[in-house]
Specification:
Chain lengths: 108, 122
Protein backbone atom coordinates (compact mmCIF):
# COMPACT_ATOMS: atom_id res chain seq x y z
CA UNK A 1 0.00 0.00 0.00
CA UNK A 2 1.05 3.59 -0.60
CA UNK A 3 1.57 5.42 2.70
CA UNK A 4 0.83 9.13 3.00
CA UNK A 5 2.61 11.03 5.75
CA UNK A 6 1.42 14.50 6.64
CA UNK A 7 3.26 17.13 8.63
CA UNK A 8 2.75 18.71 10.97
CA UNK A 9 0.09 16.74 12.85
CA UNK A 10 -1.15 19.94 14.40
CA UNK A 11 -0.56 23.59 13.80
CA UNK A 12 -1.48 26.81 15.59
CA UNK A 13 -1.88 29.95 13.52
CA UNK A 14 -3.62 33.31 13.52
CA UNK A 15 -6.17 34.84 11.19
CA UNK A 16 -4.33 36.33 8.25
CA UNK A 17 -1.35 33.96 8.49
CA UNK A 18 -0.02 31.97 5.56
CA UNK A 19 0.00 28.26 6.33
CA UNK A 20 1.59 25.31 4.57
CA UNK A 21 0.83 21.63 5.17
CA UNK A 22 2.97 18.95 3.59
CA UNK A 23 2.25 15.39 2.54
CA UNK A 24 4.79 12.81 1.48
CA UNK A 25 3.95 9.62 -0.41
CA UNK A 26 5.89 6.40 0.12
CA UNK A 27 6.38 6.09 -3.65
CA UNK A 28 5.93 8.32 -6.65
CA UNK A 29 2.28 8.99 -7.40
CA UNK A 30 2.77 11.64 -10.11
CA UNK A 31 0.21 14.37 -9.33
CA UNK A 32 -2.47 12.06 -7.95
CA UNK A 33 -3.15 13.80 -4.66
CA UNK A 34 -6.34 15.30 -3.30
CA UNK A 35 -6.81 17.53 -0.26
CA UNK A 36 -9.90 17.58 1.97
CA UNK A 37 -11.05 19.81 4.79
CA UNK A 38 -13.05 18.40 7.70
CA UNK A 39 -14.73 20.39 10.45
CA UNK A 40 -15.82 18.75 13.71
CA UNK A 41 -18.89 16.57 13.30
CA UNK A 42 -19.01 17.17 9.55
CA UNK A 43 -18.12 15.23 6.43
CA UNK A 44 -14.88 15.96 4.59
CA UNK A 45 -15.01 18.50 1.77
CA UNK A 46 -12.88 18.34 -1.37
CA UNK A 47 -10.56 21.36 -1.74
CA UNK A 48 -7.85 20.43 -4.23
CA UNK A 49 -7.58 17.55 -6.70
CA UNK A 50 -4.79 16.36 -8.99
CA UNK A 51 -2.32 18.11 -6.68
CA UNK A 52 -3.06 21.66 -7.83
CA UNK A 53 -6.57 21.94 -9.28
CA UNK A 54 -8.97 24.00 -7.19
CA UNK A 55 -12.37 22.37 -6.72
CA UNK A 56 -15.26 24.54 -7.89
CA UNK A 57 -16.55 26.84 -5.18
CA UNK A 58 -13.40 26.66 -3.04
CA UNK A 59 -11.83 30.05 -2.21
CA UNK A 60 -8.71 30.96 -4.13
CA UNK A 61 -6.69 31.38 -0.92
CA UNK A 62 -6.34 27.58 -1.04
CA UNK A 63 -3.70 26.20 -3.38
CA UNK A 64 -1.84 22.96 -3.87
CA UNK A 65 1.44 21.98 -5.44
CA UNK A 66 3.84 19.11 -5.89
CA UNK A 67 4.40 15.97 -7.87
CA UNK A 68 6.12 12.65 -7.40
CA UNK A 69 6.28 12.11 -3.65
CA UNK A 70 6.10 15.59 -2.09
CA UNK A 71 2.99 17.76 -1.96
CA UNK A 72 1.86 20.90 -0.21
CA UNK A 73 -1.42 22.59 0.65
CA UNK A 74 -1.13 26.32 1.21
CA UNK A 75 -3.67 28.72 2.68
CA UNK A 76 -2.51 32.19 1.75
CA UNK A 77 -4.41 34.17 4.39
CA UNK A 78 -6.20 32.23 7.09
CA UNK A 79 -9.82 33.03 7.69
CA UNK A 80 -11.80 32.05 10.83
CA UNK A 81 -13.70 29.38 8.90
CA UNK A 82 -10.46 27.66 7.85
CA UNK A 83 -9.72 26.22 11.28
CA UNK A 84 -10.31 22.54 10.69
CA UNK A 85 -8.50 19.26 10.03
CA UNK A 86 -6.94 18.73 6.62
CA UNK A 87 -6.26 15.40 4.94
CA UNK A 88 -4.27 14.48 1.86
CA UNK A 89 -5.28 11.41 -0.16
CA UNK A 90 -3.45 9.50 -2.85
CA UNK A 91 -5.53 8.68 -5.91
CA UNK A 92 -2.92 6.87 -7.94
CA UNK A 93 -4.21 3.90 -9.93
CA UNK A 94 -3.84 1.52 -7.05
CA UNK A 95 -6.12 0.85 -4.14
CA UNK A 96 -6.44 1.44 -1.26
CA UNK A 97 -6.89 5.19 -1.75
CA UNK A 98 -5.01 5.99 1.42
CA UNK A 99 -5.27 9.20 3.40
CA UNK A 100 -2.69 11.02 5.45
CA UNK A 101 -3.20 11.02 9.20
CA UNK A 102 -4.53 14.58 9.18
CA UNK A 103 -3.32 18.02 10.21
CA UNK A 104 -5.38 19.86 12.80
CA UNK A 105 -5.23 23.60 12.27
CA UNK A 106 -6.04 25.51 15.44
CA UNK A 107 -6.38 29.15 16.35
CA UNK A 108 -3.35 30.65 18.10
CA UNK B 1 -28.75 19.90 -5.19
CA UNK B 2 -26.39 16.95 -5.13
CA UNK B 3 -26.96 15.03 -1.94
CA UNK B 4 -25.97 11.74 -0.33
CA UNK B 5 -27.77 10.52 2.78
CA UNK B 6 -26.55 7.49 4.71
CA UNK B 7 -28.70 5.37 7.01
CA UNK B 8 -28.63 2.03 8.76
CA UNK B 9 -26.04 2.64 11.44
CA UNK B 10 -26.51 1.62 15.05
CA UNK B 11 -25.19 -0.51 17.88
CA UNK B 12 -24.48 -4.14 17.04
CA UNK B 13 -22.81 -6.98 18.90
CA UNK B 14 -19.50 -8.43 17.72
CA UNK B 15 -20.04 -11.11 15.10
CA UNK B 16 -23.34 -9.71 13.95
CA UNK B 17 -24.29 -8.00 10.69
CA UNK B 18 -25.54 -4.63 9.53
CA UNK B 19 -26.47 -3.10 6.20
CA UNK B 20 -25.82 0.55 5.44
CA UNK B 21 -27.61 2.48 2.72
CA UNK B 22 -26.70 5.69 0.91
CA UNK B 23 -29.51 7.45 -0.94
CA UNK B 24 -28.39 9.71 -3.77
CA UNK B 25 -30.27 12.63 -5.26
CA UNK B 26 -29.65 15.63 -7.47
CA UNK B 27 -27.49 13.85 -10.04
CA UNK B 28 -27.53 10.85 -12.39
CA UNK B 29 -26.46 8.21 -9.89
CA UNK B 30 -25.90 5.55 -12.54
CA UNK B 31 -23.10 7.61 -14.14
CA UNK B 32 -20.75 7.57 -11.16
CA UNK B 33 -18.48 5.20 -9.29
CA UNK B 34 -19.12 5.28 -5.55
CA UNK B 35 -17.06 4.72 -2.42
CA UNK B 36 -17.41 4.00 1.27
CA UNK B 37 -14.96 5.63 3.67
CA UNK B 38 -14.95 5.25 7.44
CA UNK B 39 -13.58 7.20 10.39
CA UNK B 40 -13.09 5.62 13.80
CA UNK B 41 -13.76 7.91 16.77
CA UNK B 42 -11.15 10.70 16.89
CA UNK B 43 -9.15 8.99 14.14
CA UNK B 44 -8.36 9.63 10.50
CA UNK B 45 -10.07 8.56 7.31
CA UNK B 46 -9.90 5.01 5.97
CA UNK B 47 -11.07 4.05 2.48
CA UNK B 48 -13.26 0.94 2.72
CA UNK B 49 -14.63 -0.06 -0.68
CA UNK B 50 -15.71 1.10 -4.10
CA UNK B 51 -17.49 -0.04 -7.23
CA UNK B 52 -17.99 1.19 -10.74
CA UNK B 53 -21.04 3.04 -12.06
CA UNK B 54 -22.58 -0.21 -13.29
CA UNK B 55 -21.88 -2.18 -10.12
CA UNK B 56 -18.88 -4.00 -11.50
CA UNK B 57 -15.25 -4.02 -10.40
CA UNK B 58 -15.72 -4.05 -6.65
CA UNK B 59 -12.69 -3.37 -4.49
CA UNK B 60 -12.12 -3.58 -0.75
CA UNK B 61 -9.62 -2.59 1.90
CA UNK B 62 -7.78 -5.60 3.32
CA UNK B 63 -9.30 -4.85 6.73
CA UNK B 64 -12.82 -5.64 5.46
CA UNK B 65 -12.21 -8.03 2.58
CA UNK B 66 -14.32 -11.17 2.89
CA UNK B 67 -16.61 -9.57 5.50
CA UNK B 68 -18.07 -6.51 3.76
CA UNK B 69 -19.90 -6.33 0.43
CA UNK B 70 -20.53 -3.17 -1.54
CA UNK B 71 -23.41 -3.03 -4.00
CA UNK B 72 -25.76 -0.59 -5.67
CA UNK B 73 -29.25 -0.40 -7.10
CA UNK B 74 -29.24 2.20 -9.85
CA UNK B 75 -33.02 1.97 -10.22
CA UNK B 76 -33.32 3.13 -6.59
CA UNK B 77 -30.35 5.54 -6.67
CA UNK B 78 -28.95 3.76 -3.66
CA UNK B 79 -25.56 2.44 -2.58
CA UNK B 80 -25.21 -0.29 0.02
CA UNK B 81 -22.61 -1.74 2.35
CA UNK B 82 -23.37 -5.14 3.80
CA UNK B 83 -21.19 -5.70 6.87
CA UNK B 84 -20.85 -9.19 8.34
CA UNK B 85 -18.77 -10.63 11.19
CA UNK B 86 -18.45 -7.20 12.71
CA UNK B 87 -15.60 -6.48 15.09
CA UNK B 88 -14.99 -3.79 17.68
CA UNK B 89 -12.43 -2.22 15.34
CA UNK B 90 -15.18 -1.65 12.75
CA UNK B 91 -16.68 0.99 15.05
CA UNK B 92 -16.69 4.19 13.02
CA UNK B 93 -18.68 6.78 11.17
CA UNK B 94 -19.27 5.43 7.67
CA UNK B 95 -19.44 7.89 4.80
CA UNK B 96 -20.48 7.30 1.23
CA UNK B 97 -18.92 9.49 -1.43
CA UNK B 98 -19.34 10.07 -5.12
CA UNK B 99 -16.31 9.64 -7.34
CA UNK B 100 -16.27 12.55 -9.77
CA UNK B 101 -12.98 11.75 -11.41
CA UNK B 102 -12.64 8.03 -12.06
CA UNK B 103 -13.72 8.36 -15.70
CA UNK B 104 -10.78 10.69 -16.32
CA UNK B 105 -8.32 8.80 -14.16
CA UNK B 106 -8.43 11.52 -11.50
CA UNK B 107 -10.26 9.81 -8.66
CA UNK B 108 -11.66 12.25 -6.14
CA UNK B 109 -14.58 12.19 -3.73
CA UNK B 110 -17.25 14.86 -3.94
CA UNK B 111 -19.60 15.18 -2.22
CA UNK B 112 -19.67 13.04 0.88
CA UNK B 113 -22.74 12.10 2.85
CA UNK B 114 -23.18 13.21 6.45
CA UNK B 115 -22.16 9.78 7.73
CA UNK B 116 -23.80 7.10 9.84
CA UNK B 117 -22.30 5.78 13.08
CA UNK B 118 -21.73 2.06 13.54
CA UNK B 119 -20.85 0.92 17.05
CA UNK B 120 -19.77 -2.67 17.56
CA UNK B 121 -20.00 -3.52 21.24
CA UNK B 122 -21.29 -6.22 23.53
Amino acid sequence: DIQMTQSPSSLSASVGDKVTITCRASQSINSNVNWYQQKPGKAPKLLIYAASSLQSGVPSRFSGSGSGTDFTLTISSLQPEDFATYYCQQSYNTRPYTFGQGTKLEIK
Amino acid sequence: QVQLVESGGGVVQPGNSLRLSCAASGFRFSDYAMHWVRQAPDKGLEWVADLRYDGSNKNYADSVKGRFTISRDNSRNTLYLEMNSLRAEDTAVYYCARDVGSSSGRVRFDPWGQGTLVTVSS
